[in-house]
Amino acid sequence: MTSGDTFLLGPKMVRRMGFGAMQLPGRGVFGPPRDRIEALAVLRRAVELGVNHIDTAQFYGPDVANELIREALHPYPAELALVSKVGARRDGSGQWLPAQMPSELRAAVEDNLRTLAIDRVDVVNLRVHEESDVALEDQLAAMVDMRIEGLIGGVGVSNVSPEQFAVARAATDIVCVQNAFNIIDRSSQPVLDTCCEDGIAFVSYFPLGSAFGGDHNHVLEAPAVVAGAGRLGTTVAQLALAWLLDRSPNMLLIPGTASLAHLEQNLGASQIELDEATCEEFEALGVFG
Questions:
Q1: CATH class of 15-283
Q2: pTM for the whole thing?
Q3: Domain ranges of the chain
Q4: For the segment 177-190, what is each residue's pLDDT rounded down to a tens digit?
Q5: Residue 158 in contact with residue 22, Cβ under 8 Å?
């Protein structure tokens, strides 16, 4: 299923280094971009450099990320996989709120189709909330209905525990998992292991740490990572991404940026080969969770 730098993601074979659109809107993933011209240029340059997996969500902005993608790239290359996420929404102040009723999930998918100007989203990830008034089985049933109707090419899940992943897989075919995973935070290793064993794509979010701070945010400051980058002549971000690519053949990355320079640096991580000493040193780093 995998051939080096590619892996199957729903209906399409994609390069393992993709692009996440989360950082394209304004501060806090809310409102218009800081620099619209550069945001559009970043999207176009990513595709020029071979990216064929773009991760987005209607609630990035809201609407902003999808509208930028459409303006920059429509009509889309046939090989481009557009992946979105449902299960959340934003209020007028930018707060993140759950939106998991079947009617809300359908409305979110339809909003993605409208703003991206497509007839089907290649993959839609259901963002799972630990405490929800809506049974996970009911949410998944709504996703399956939309896949049968042709609105979704493949169903994925995001932010899932091993137990929730088992529930999802019992309900339907799952084409990918999107969980937080990086050098510091490996709490999803059991889910990654299951995905690897069964040939399911695992998409790491927060591969370089979270823009929102907290325990996810120490990746680029970890002394071992900083020292390793200096030793290998890479940026810290490149080394952190290269480690993830080396971690598992089904690992897909979606680092996000609104900077052309950072985009090109991030994509360069796929050319980095890690030495055994560096891998062993990183294994000793603490694990959050």
A1: alpha beta
A2: 0.94
A3: 15-283
A4: 999 999 989 999 99
A5: no
